[in-house]
Amino acid sequence: MEFKDNIPIYLQIEQYLYRQIALGKMKAGEKIPSVRKLALGLTVNVNTVQRALQEMNTQGILYTKRGEGNFVTEDTELLSKTKQSLINNELDEFVQNMEKLGIKKDKLVSTLTEYLKDSEDHNE
Asked: Residue 21 and residue 36: Cα distance in Å, rounded?
């Protein structure tokens, strides 16, 4: 995982884990890898991973079973809201980037529709 310099690493780890959950790579009720395993895999400090997990515990996305580790919540409504939040964040970034390129909001739908049609034609 490549980390951006302008965003705290623990927040990027949270976003990474949210994506893993949203993509179904970590399912409701499933145990997530240990703090040490995550830190090793992401090549970050254990304390940084711990902070990300604490934040996710506070938000209710994860819960801890004493002596067993951290698990993804089984609250499907909360998981749906989390996924929708990720989608909204991606859309916000997309819209901002298009505005920087001079595409006004009223032209976004037609521009995206045209792009999707062209990419579909190329894939056939």
From this structure: 19
